[in-house]
Amino acid sequence: MKLFQRIVSIAVVMMLAKSAMTQTAADTALENKVSEWVTSLKLNDEIKAQRVRSAIAAHLTAVRDWHNSHPYTMIPEGINPTTGGRLSEMDRQIIICSTKPGSIHDNLMNVLRAELDSTQVEAILDRYTIGKVAFTLQGYKAIVPDLTPKEETEILKNLKLAREQAIDYKNMKEISAKQN
């Protein structure tokens, strides 16, 4: 019995160590991403750059942690009221992720808007969504080559709104679903 308890104890320690190593790797990857994004802005003020880095890192961490601690299974299977079909796993994931506190988004945007000009804010938002606004707008133009300037302005406004909402989701599948 003591041998069994010792084996179980070792297994638990190994699982905890693996979990800690995985978290450390995720944190390092996140820090590298944030550093790359902020460096791309070529800010001349290191204090400003640090505030922006901290805000982005806090946001990405909060989004990741919320996503990881709130699985789609927390939303019951049901009917999508828009389509009448069953809610997909992605629908349920988007619903649960959309319940995170609004302060997560607001805190990031307040810092970005206070520290950066509008072009730099857009550059950071584009980093979150890997340039989906420009890509999707080009798709619209290919489908409807004779878009009027008024129509293009309206589409661009809606794409930018979707982009800002999409930054609060963890992965590209969620971001793409949110922008479509």
Walk me through this protein's architecture.
- There is one protein chain.
- This protein has one domain (2-179).
- It is built from eight helices and no strands.
- It has helices at residues 2-40, 46-69, 89-97, 102-115, 118-128, 132-143, 149-166, 172-179.
- Helix 2 (46-69) packs antiparallel against helix 4 and helix 7 runs antiparallel to helix 8 (172-179).
- The chain is mainly alpha-helical and 180 residues long.
- Residues 16-21 have low confidence and may be disordered.
Q: What fraction strand?
A: under 5%
Structural class: mainly alpha
Give a quick account of the main beta sheet: strands, pairing sense, barrel closure. Answer: none
Secondary structure: number of strands: 0
In percent, how helical is the residue content? over 70%
Enumerate the spans where pLDDT stays under 50 for 5 or more consecutive residues.
16-21
The residue-averaged pLDDT reads: 87
Topology as a string of helices (H) and strands (E)? HHHHHHHH
Shape: flat
Rg from C-alpha positions?
A: 21 Å
The number of distinct helices, counting runs of at least 4 residues, comes to: 8
Q: How many discrete domains?
A: 1
End-to-end distance: 57 Å
